[in-house]
Amino acid sequence: MTPATSSFAHRVAEERRPAPGSPADARHYVKLWQEPESLDGERVRAFVLILRTRGCYWADVKGCTMCGYARDTLGRSATEEEIGLQLARALTSYRDEPYVKIYTSGSFLDRREVPEAARSRVAAAFAGRARRLLVETLPEFVSPEALRELRDSFGGTLEVALGLESTQPRVLAKAVHKHETPTQYLEAADRVRRGGASPKAYLLLKPPYLTERESIEDTVASVARASSHFDTLSVNPVHLQGGTVVEHLFRRGLYRPPWLWSLVEVLSRASRLRAPGTRLVSFPTSGGNPRGVHNCLRCDPEVLSRIQESSLAQDFSLLDGLPDCPCRETWRHSLALEALSPEA
Q1: Given this model, what pLDDT does residue 1 score?
Q2: How far is CA 324 from the centre of its chain?
Q3: To which H or E segment does residue 85 belong?
Q4: Sequential DSSP letters for 150-189
Q5: Coil, helix or strand at residue 335
């Protein structure tokens, strides 16, 4: 990465940093919804809650190229009482969904975002009601003490998600702007397992500065390398979020979100390379939208439906019979042209 590119990334980080939130802001969670999921082979509904906290500390330093979640944060640490008020509001919409996912636009295990007492309070709220609780964190916050605290408060299966994105160091550092190495993520996943929890990885499809073909190969290789360390691998195609490096590149005609055909290719190939018992899933955000993973938009609903069904059923042969839309040939041609480019 050139000094100019690095300066550009820092400038974007400054633009998206929120002003300190008011006490009124801190009483309201960011968003909640229900979504289809699979739990122990059973189709279920998952309850998803995004709490409003100070957000990811790395976003204040530099931030990842595709992440705009800093805009949903307080710009300061939330108190235990404020987290409790958000939780109480959210629980009025909870209908005993067996799978609960809690996000903070950062790291749930970072005490600067969620105080330790508030973490236990959140986990205990779903004890005896949900069977699985998922939280997300950066690898440096995974400790035996934090895992034990959550397991004891919840009582069910604890799942810890890590934004690995790629197992290639250069991609992680230069294209995603992560400050940790892939090895640190893999070691954190191993600590999660030793702590009696289930590790999950998010893998990014098409970070900036990679061609479509390069991004396919990177994600497939990442599945192969990471699958023995994680119980679940989730392939997340980039979608455009406001105030990010990716959006700036998009507005200048320098970036296109990935093709759905690329996601189909990744899932079809990677499903044969994963370790036995490892779940591979993809539930794209903004799929079928010009700002998210998409094809020609005409075939997108059918392709997205097959991707979701194959993820829930863990049967990726469902992708083999997709109708061959004319845009698939356009996608193939674009990959072939990339291979001929001297910059590819």
Answers
A1: 46
A2: 29
A3: helix 80-91
A4: HHHHH-SEEEEEEEEE-S-HHIIIIII--SS-HHHHHHHH
A5: helix
Cα separation, 131 vs 279, whole angstroms: 18
Span 170-189, pLDDT tens digits: 999 999 999 999 999 999 99
pTM: 0.93
**Tokens standing for 154?**
């919840």
If one counts every other C-beta atom within 10 angstroms of the C-beta of residue 77, the result is: 16
Q: How confident is the model at residue 71 (pLDDT cuts 50, 70, 90)?
A: confident
Which domains are delineated in the chain? 3-340 (3.20.20.70)
How many CA within 13 A on the CB side of residue 183?
2
The token pair that represents 286 in the structure block: 């903004």
The Cβ of residue 13 has, within 10 Å, a number of other Cβ atoms equal to: 22
3-state secondary structure of 225: helix
Rounded (10°) CA dihedral 2, 335, 182, 204: 100
Per-residue pLDDT tens digits for 239-252:
999 999 999 999 99
State how far Cα 104 lies from the chain centre: 12
Average the pLDDT over 291-313 and give the result: 98
Using CA atoms, how far apart are residues 46 and 197, in angstroms rounded to an integer? 18
* 235, β-bridge pairs: 203
- Say which DSSP state 99 is in: E
28 DSSP 8-state letter: S
CA 216 – CA 258 distance, rounded (Å): 9
b/e string for 290-329 if b means 16 or more Cβ within 10 A? ebbbbbeeebbeebbebbbebbbeeebebbeebeebebbe
Distance CA 134, CA 197 (A): 10
